[in-house]
Backbone:
């Protein structure tokens, strides 16, 4: 295919046999997903988070998505999550709002000092558990989110949002937006390639932050302009075919079955339970008492 | 109600942010069953006229409009776009930009869905349009997997499903390979023969002549310069402005002095025997692990080569050519540029010897002025300041944009932007030039001029360009490659490769009148040349 393409590209959706996630009406799945998210963000207690993680893993392994399809995106996100968990662990920042007191397990002190400062790493029970909780929580979120574009049929985006109660225009706009993301990614790549062919080296950016951002102009300006021009064409094309003049018919029909109702109910129960536990003050950051005693607390 | 589908009277329009009018005093009528060809150079007002007819002006594009557009006797100025779109269907220039649906059926049904028709009726009408255009088999396909020709038919089906009486086709041939273009033209003729009124804006006049449009309108400077039968066109327009059939050009050019001889690649002459500048050794590539799109390409680009790469849409031409600058690295085999494996050099390093012009200018233009845009490449290559100034001025002269030096490139027309994108690479003074469809979206006179100039530049030792225009290969190339399904199907001189019409057809290429004339005269000329030059032999 030529590189001058401007049309919308779809996500890597495929109809997958025996996929658990795809066996539901997309509306039901999105409702469940929203409930799951609220539940997930309510808790910091790793004992409460693990069941969520378990659900995420179950959905992942029954999704029918092949490892090679998802590998790059997945490694990137898990790597990112892992990096941040480690970072908060090392600095001890991030968890401070959840615990006031720390219990030292071991302290590492560097054998050198920098301008009088001796780099020190305190390994405390709280930091270890905060890192674990953070990793479990964000991984669950990432897994559940990343599976959606692989599992939701792009031609049903519009009708799904419509079915969730959005109006026609908004539902179609959501549909276009969802599909705009991969298109944007491809345009970005084309621009990077075109500028590299003019001797531009993204790797060799130097200078301060402002200078670096300025030097990214050759990439950002064309990408943004392209997006604007592209959207003007899309608007023309929509206008020319009577978009938005009145109530719209959607030729795709979604079918809500029993299993969808069950899923929605489970989602709602999960949501209510989470909110209730949260209100009762349960599910906050937790470390095992045994460890505290061990650490001499 | 009048029987005449379209009557335009004294139509003028000025865009809100411009001082000059885009079109002036346009008056014409169009009849049922007629193909009206609208031709003219870039910026002549064709697109503005189309927008006035389909209602985007003044509804989406604001400005000052006067005169009237009447459809079956009714003035459309008070109509809503939805009402107009059921009478006047428009297929925009680039079908890819107007396809909204993920699946072919959704795309075709889009307009009908918006009209809020009952679901059964929509499906019925969508299927009818698909069958009518003989693309029912594409119904369930995802639109981004379609070829260029298929996309256009799908876009057309989406418009036809709304059952318009008038069809506006804005440069329908621009992105199509010759066989798909022919197919698109046949479809237009067929629709007209069914009683539709077809207005077709197209640069490629010669191609459209094959379907015998009833009338031709020639626009220039926002006005109609000619409106009448085909036979009269060649008498009023200059053969350098519009591409006419080769025999007509020969007739007309006889009265003019012979064109200047083109000395191609003066920089390559006298530099010794054909040394390989670029070498492909058994190059195979695939974007995904298990799908190979290039299968073992072997090729040498030598000093003095002017290579035209031709072949169908989606044949792998761009993928193949991107290997030359290292943007893609082979999965198997290797590519050597100046003896160096592209795996071991950065793209920026290769760019100093090999300049690559991308197909679409909008992916690279960013600078506040044309001058800065052109200086970007040479600066990255660390050229000296005075040298850069000289390189930029020279490049601007070649593409005929010296007057726009201080203009923002993003404010220029598409054709001008395309020329800026070419000049941006020319300014880098590389030894090898690679261009992906350099003439797409350009008018005939402009692209012939800059091709003439580029070919005669002293800096280049070899040039390679991808094109759908067989005549460019005939006129400018001394070597033609046919690429199809990821393979090099033919490689030889134009006379060797283009002589075999069966092979051309098998690769979705269509012999042109210029090719036929050159082959006929070949015993006397010994080489291929422009029609103007043939006139004097």
Residues:
């Amino acid at each position: 295919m030529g590189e001058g393409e401007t049309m919308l590209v779809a996500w890597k959706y495929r109809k997958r046999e025996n996929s658990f996630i795809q066996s539901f009406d997309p509306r039901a799945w999105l409702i469940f997903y929203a409930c799951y998210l609220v539940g997930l963000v309510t808790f910091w207690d790793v004992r409460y988070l693990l069941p969520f993680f378990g659900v995420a893993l179950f959905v992942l392994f029954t999704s029918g998505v092949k490892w090679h399809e998802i590998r790059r995106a997945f490694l990137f996100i898990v790597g990112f999550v892992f990096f941040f968990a480690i970072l908060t662990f090392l600095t001890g920042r991030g968890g401070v709002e959840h615990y006031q007191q720390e219990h030292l397990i071991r302290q590492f002190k560097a054998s050198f000092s920098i301008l009088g400062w001796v780099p020190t790493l305190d390994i405390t029970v709280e930091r270890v558990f905060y890192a674990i909780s953070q990793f479990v929580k964000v991984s669950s979120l990432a897994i559940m989110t990343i599976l959606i574009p692989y599992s939701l049929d792009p031609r049903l985006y519009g009708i799904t949002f419509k079915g969730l109660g959005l109006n026609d225009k908004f539902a179609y706009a959501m549909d276009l937006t969802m599909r705009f993301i991969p298109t944007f990614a491809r345009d970005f790549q084309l621009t990077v390639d075109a500028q590299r062919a003019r001797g531009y080296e993204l790797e060799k950016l130097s200078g301060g932050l402002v200078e670096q951002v300025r030097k990214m102009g050759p990439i950002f300006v064309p990408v943004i302009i392209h997006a604007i021009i592209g959207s003007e064409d899309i608007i023309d094309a929509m206008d020319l075919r009577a978009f938005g003049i009145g109530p719209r018919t959607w030729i795709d029909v979604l079918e809500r079955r029993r299993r969808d109702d069950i899923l929605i109910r489970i989602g709602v129960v999960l949501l209510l339970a989470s909110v209730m536990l949260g209100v009762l003050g349960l599910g906050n950051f937790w470390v095992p008492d045994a460890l505290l005693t061990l650490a001499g607390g | 109600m009048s029987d005449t589908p379209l009557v335009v009277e004294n139509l003028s329009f000025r865009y809100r942010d411009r001082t000059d009018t885009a079109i002036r005093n346009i008056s014409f009528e169009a009849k049922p069953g007629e193909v009206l060809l609208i031709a003219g150079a870039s910026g002549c007002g064709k697109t503005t006229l189309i927008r006035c007819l389909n209602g985007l002006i003044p509804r989406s594009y604001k400005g000052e409009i006067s005169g009237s557009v009447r459809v079956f006797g009714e003035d459309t100025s008070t109509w809503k776009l939805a009402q107009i779109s059921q009478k006047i269907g428009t297929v925009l220039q680039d079908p890819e930009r107007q396809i909204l649906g993920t699946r072919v059926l959704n795309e075709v049904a889009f307009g009908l869905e918006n009209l809020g028709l009952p679901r059964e009726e929509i499906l019925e009408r969508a299927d009818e349009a698909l069958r009518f255009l003989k693309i029912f088999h594409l119904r369930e396909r995802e639109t981004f997997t379609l070829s260029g020709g298929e996309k256009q038919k799908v876009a057309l089906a989406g418009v036809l499903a709304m059952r318009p009486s008038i069809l506006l086709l804005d440069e329908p041939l621009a992105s199509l390979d010759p066989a798909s273009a022919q197919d698109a033209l046949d479809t237009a003729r067929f629709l007209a023969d069914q009683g539709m009124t077809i207005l077709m804006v197209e640069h490629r006049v010669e191609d459209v002549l094959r379907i015998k449009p009833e009338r031709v309108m020639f626009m220039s400077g926002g006005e109609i310069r000619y409106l009448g039968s085909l036979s009269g066109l060649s008498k009023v327009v200059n053969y350098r402005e519009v591409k006419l059939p080769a025999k007509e050009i020969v007739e007309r050019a006889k009265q003019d002095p012979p064109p200047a001889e083109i000395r191609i690649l003066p920089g390559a002459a006298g530099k010794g025997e054909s040394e390989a500048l670029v070498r492909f050794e058994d190059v195979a590539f695939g974007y995904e692990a298990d799908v190979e799109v290039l299968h073992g390409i072997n090729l040498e680009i030598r000093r003095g080569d002017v290579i035209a790469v031709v072949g169908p849409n989606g044949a792998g031409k761009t993928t193949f050519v991107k290997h030359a600058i290292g943007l893609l690295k082979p999965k198997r085999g290797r590519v050597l540029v100046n003896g160096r494996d592209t795996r071991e050099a950065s793209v920026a390093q290769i760019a100093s010897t090999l300049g690559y012009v991308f197909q679409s200018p909008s992916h690279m233009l960013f600078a506040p002025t044309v001058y800065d845009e052109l200086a970007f490449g040479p600066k990255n290559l660390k050229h000296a300041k005075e040298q850069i100034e000289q390189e930029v001025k020279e490049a601007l002269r070649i593409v005929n944009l010296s007057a726009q030096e201080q203009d923002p490139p993003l404010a220029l027309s598409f054709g001008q932007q395309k020329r800026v994108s070419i000049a941006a690479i020319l300014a880098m003074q590389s030894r090898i030039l690679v261009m992906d469809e350099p003439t797409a979206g350009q008018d005939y006179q402009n692209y012939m001029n800059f091709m003439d100039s580029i070919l005669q530049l002293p800096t280049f030792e070899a040039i390679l360009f991808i094109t759908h225009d067989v005549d460019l290969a005939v006129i400018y190339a001394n070597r033609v490659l046919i690429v199809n399904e990821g393979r090099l199907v033919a490689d030889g001189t134009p006379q060797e490769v283009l002589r075999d019409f069966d092979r051309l057809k098998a690769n979705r290429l269509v012999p042109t009148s210029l090719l036929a004339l050159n082959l006929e005269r070949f015993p006397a000329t010994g080489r291929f040349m422009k029609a103007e030059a043939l006139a004097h032999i």
Remarks:
- The longest helix of chain A spans residues 168-196.
- Chain A has one domain: 21-294.
